[in-house]
């Protein structure tokens, strides 16, 4: 069985910590067994490794998230890159063609797709493993996992099993039921009625034979080669896999999971799983109850006399919300700005200031951090010049093939169309002031990614 983890999200529901470059699965606010801060994707990948499923797993994500994904789970994790965000039907279709044409996976192989950010017990992944038997022993098109509800939630979709048990008694001993129909986000009263009919929460886990999705694409007239489908990716229907495939399938089975499961997609649910009420600089007064402060900037934040509240601060903005109202935040985020904080494979970038002036000039000031022994690519800007002030650490710098050692206090001028790179010998921080004409489109051109490539091809002897 091959596992595909879907990593998407627009970064709105956990604003301001999440943004278009760093959506919820990358926020390091949870803790592992060693009391280290980890993200949702790091936690899930660790659970897959513990269940011995990681070696057969892939992560499907958009091109904009590849770098942060590699920085968090490592370079060796196989990533299926999507040209753009286009909902789960397109993502799963592309992943299927990658497995088929790029990895040479057989058409009769079972593929299981699941979100990259479920907050579950380790036992959940044993249920995932069992889906392969359900697919192999039954005649269904798809096998799902349904979570046994703990309350009548109106936030989730429901899977309603049929009254009839599978005709094959041996298959029934595998613990699955056939699916009658689906109900999306009912009222609480309807949810109570559905639960009385043994309905389960839909947790977004699908298993199928690889041939099933490949055949669907062929019927729809799309290529089944990964590179070819990438070229036509924008033509794929922008719709969920549930609506386009699952609800139209001739036969669907469901396996129930009885255990801890939670969607950590909003501040009220995420803070329930945080072991600390406060992350970052600031103070929460003693009379605050059920209040959380998450602060990613260096300015202290004081929360006094407020209960059932989340205060979240990042370079992208400041949020103060009642926990019960926090799911509504996505309706109020419409700021015309790009991400102000990004994680990269080599470190991080924080935008300190972004200004445009009447004479057409634009000036962006950044603070970047480079991890020890990491480097940025060998690159040049077509329409921007930069001044770097090194404020921390030591490193090696290349500019148009000229090599030099640099350290805190050095100031480097990088004109437009000048190739350059830097590698950190110790952890480094640099203030970058980038200037140019706002109407001139700046193109970042990268030649080499690794320092060894640069040493072989760029450094003048």
From TrEMBL:
Any GO BP? GDP-mannose biosynthetic process
Keyword Coiled coil present in the record's keywords: the answer is no
Q: What is the originating organism of this protein?
A: Paenibacillus rhizosphaerae
Keyword field: Nucleotidyltransferase, Transferase
Q: Where in this chain does the record put each Nucleotidyl transferase domain?
A: 4-275
Q: Which InterPro entries match?
A: Man6P_isomerase-2_C, Mannose-6P_isomerase_type2, NTP_transferase_dom, Nucleotide-diphossugar_trans, RmlC-like_jellyroll, RmlC_Cupin_sf
Q: What is this protein called?
A: Mannose-1-phosphate guanylyltransferase
Q: Name one Pfam family in it.
A: MannoseP_isomer
* Highest taxon of the lineage: Bacteria
A Gene Ontology molecular function term for this protein is: mannose-1-phosphate guanylyltransferase (GTP) activity
Q: Does the keyword NAD apply?
A: no
């Amino acid at each position: 069985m091959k596992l595909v983890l879907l990593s998407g999200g627009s970064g709105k529901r956990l604003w301001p910590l999440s943004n278009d470059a760093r959506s919820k699965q990358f926020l390091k606010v949870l803790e592992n067994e060693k009391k280290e801060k980890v993200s949702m994707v790091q936690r899930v990948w660790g659970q897959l490794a513990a269940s011995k499923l990681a070696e057969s797993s892939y992560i499907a994500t958009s091109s904009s998230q590849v770098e942060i994904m590699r920085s968090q789970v490592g370079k060796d994790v196989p990533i299926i890159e999507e040209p753009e965000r286009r909902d789960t039907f397109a993502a799963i279709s592309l992943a299927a063609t990658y497995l088929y044409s790029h990895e040479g996976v057989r058409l009769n192989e079972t593929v299981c797709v699941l979100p990259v950010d479920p907050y579950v017990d380790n036992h959940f992944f044993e249920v995932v493993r069992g889906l392969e038997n359900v697919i192999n022993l039954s005649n269904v098109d798809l096998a799902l996992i349904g979570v046994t509800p703990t309350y009548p939630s109106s936030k989730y979709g429901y899977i309603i099993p049929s009254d009839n048990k599978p005709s094959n008694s041996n298959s029934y001993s595998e613990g699955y039921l056939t699916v009658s129909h689906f109900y999306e986000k009912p009222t609480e009263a309807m949810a109570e009625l559905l639960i009385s009919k043994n309905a389960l929460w839909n947790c977004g886990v699908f298993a199928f034979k690889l041939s099933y999705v490949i055949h669907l694409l062929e019927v729809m007239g799309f290529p089944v080669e990964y590179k070819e489908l990438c070229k036509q990716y924008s033509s794929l229907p922008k719709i969920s896999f549930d609506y386009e495939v699952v609800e139209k399938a001739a036969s669907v089975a469901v396996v129930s999971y009885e255990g801890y499961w939670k969607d950590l997609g909003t501040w009220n649910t995420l803070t329930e799983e945080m072991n600390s009420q406060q992350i970052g600089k600031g103070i929460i007064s003693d009379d605050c109850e059920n209040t959380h402060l998450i602060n990613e900037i260096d300015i202290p934040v004081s929360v006094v006399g407020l209960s059932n509240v989340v205060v979240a601060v990042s370079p992208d903005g400041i949020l103060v919300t009642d926990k019960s109202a926090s799911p509504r935040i996505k309706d109020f985020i419409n700021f015309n700005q790009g991400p102000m904080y990004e994680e990269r494979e080599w470190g991080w970038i924080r935008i300190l200031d972004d200004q445009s002036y009447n004479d057409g000039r634009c000036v962006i000031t950044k603070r970047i951090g480079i991890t020890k022994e990491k480097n940025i690519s060998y690159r040049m800007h077509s329409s921007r010049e930069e001044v770097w002030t090194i404020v921390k650490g030591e490193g090696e710098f290349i500019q148009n093939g000229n090599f030099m050692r640099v350290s805190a206090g050095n100031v480097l001028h990088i004109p437009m169309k000048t190739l350059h790179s830097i590698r950190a010998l110790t952890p480094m921080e640099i203030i970058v002031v980038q200037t140019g004409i706002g109407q001139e489109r700046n193109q970042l051109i990268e030649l080499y990614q690794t320092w060894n490539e640069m040493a072989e091809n760029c450094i003048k002897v």
